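Tokens as discussed.
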């Protein structure tokens, strides 16, 4: 299977880079912007069916390119998905099975030293690399963005902000510009938007760039600017206060994404270098604060579909290489974006990864499934989890999951039962036994990697 995928990707790359976009060979490499938002529900964009909110700018990425109906986050919470996206590995294999937090007694991950983050191969391919926004893979050296290979960092190291305006977490200030602590004024979404636009404008045409723009919206606290909340309430009679706040926070973020897209398009006009924009969420929406995960069961924190199935789309601005308004039901997940971005950049991945490139699918070329087994895992503390894992594993239509470490495994056939209503664990023991054996193998693999700092 891997040989087939490699052949497909090689064929695509041969076409992709055979004709430079200008006289300079380096212009054959597009800029790449990866936009990752935080806790966005599967149904919380208007292009995915929401009727009480408006996301014209996120919608425009889908309209200008390709939208996925079967894209998955590696985990139903923040840090693990980010670790998977930036390393191309299953999160537990790089030491981040759970959420990295300020307090050691509530910390469930530590990014291992040997993990090769995406800026490293991209820099070898000639790219300048930057992250703006939420990092959430370490609070101190050696696990800060600059330590792990990024050329530029302007954002927040921590897991969440207790307030979108003062940017503190447990009283600590985690806002940094490269290695320098800063204390800016303003709503975090506005700051991240402005900093992303500043970075894009600062880049010279001679060198391509990779920007990882990680908004912390619409993560709790649900704290939109007051004028955005008033606008939503005036437009949507009968909307609950809870839902109105979340809609306003999402729409405010969408407006920021619109500013970023406008800056990208202006830079394309000025420099001639196209830009690929990828968009997704780190996990499903949090139901308790009013998120809409469409018809899917449950939401953030959960191994049911609503926790791990997310919106995703991509567009290639300044080029027609991704066909506008195209759709795919091809299945992929967060860690597959690592090799995809490397293929877009012409970067070589010289180490073992678990992700597989979906560049052929982006370009409308049929490709075989990227894997037979799909594995999702999360380790968490508190009274609900007690430091144990919850997990899901899928092969074909069959999905085996344990949504609580203290409850039995459940088995679903997603082709017949996409809403996960009918547990077949007792009715189909052969499939249950096969997938549970695979479960144990995956847990053993993850258990080889420490997820706490080794002194």
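Sequence:
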């Amino acid at each position: 299977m891997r040989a087939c995928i490699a052949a497909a990707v090689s064929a695509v790359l041969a076409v992709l880079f055979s004709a430079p976009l200008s006289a300079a060979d380096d212009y054959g490499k597009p800029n790449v912007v990866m936009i990752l938002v935080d806790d966005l529900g599967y149904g919380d964009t208007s292009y995915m069916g929401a009727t009480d909110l408006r996301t014209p700018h996120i919608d425009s990425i889908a309209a200008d390119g390709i939208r996925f109906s079967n894209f998955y986050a590696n985990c139903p919470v923040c840090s693990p998905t980010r670790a998977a996206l930036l390393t191309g590995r299953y999160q537990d294999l790089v030491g981040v099975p759970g959420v990295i937090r300020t307090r050691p007694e509530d910390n469930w991950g530590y990014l291992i030293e040997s993990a090769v983050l995406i800026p490293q191969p991209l820099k070898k391919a000639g790219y300048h690399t930057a992250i703006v926004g939420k990092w959430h893979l370490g609070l101190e050296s050696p696990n800060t963005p600059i330590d792990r290979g990024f050329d530029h960092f302007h954002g927040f190291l921590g897991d969440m902000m207790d307030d979108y305006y003062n940017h503190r977490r447990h009283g600590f200030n985690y806002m940094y510009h490269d290695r320098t602590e800063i204390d800016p004024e303003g709503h975090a979404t506005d700051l991240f938007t402005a900093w992303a636009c500043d970075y894009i404008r600062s880049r010279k045409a001679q060198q391509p760039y990779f920007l990882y723009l990680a908004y912390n919206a619409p993560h709790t606290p649900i704290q939109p600017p007051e004028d955005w909340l008033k606008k939503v309430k005036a437009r949507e009679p009968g909307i609950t206060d809870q839902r109105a706040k979340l809609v306003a926070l999402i729409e405010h973020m969408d407006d920021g994404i619109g500013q970023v897209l406008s800056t990208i398009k202006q830079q394309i006009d000025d420099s001639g270098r196209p830009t690929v924009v990828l968009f997704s969420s780190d996990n499903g929406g949090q139901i308790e604060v009013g998120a809409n995960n469409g018809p899917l069961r449950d939401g953030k924190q959960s191994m049911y579909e609503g926790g791990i199935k997310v919106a995703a789309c991509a567009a290639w601005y300044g080029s027609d290489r991704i066909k506008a308004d195209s759709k795919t039901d091809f299945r992929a997940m967060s860690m597959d974006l690592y090799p995809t971005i490397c293929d877009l950049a012409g970067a070589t991945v010289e180490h073992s990864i678990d992700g597989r490139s979906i560049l052929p699918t982006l370009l409308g070329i049929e490709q075989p499934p990227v894997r037979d087994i799909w594995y999702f895992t999360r380790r968490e503390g508190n009274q609900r989890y007690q430091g144990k894992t919850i997990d899901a594993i899928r092969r074909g239509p069959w999905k085996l999951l344990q949504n609580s470490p203290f409850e039995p495994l459940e088995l679903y056939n997603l082709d017949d039962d996409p809403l996960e209503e009918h547990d077949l664990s007792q009715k189909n023991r052969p499939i249950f036994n096969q997938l549970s054996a695979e479960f144990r193998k995956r847990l053993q693999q993850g258990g080889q990697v420490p997820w706490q700092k080794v002194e």
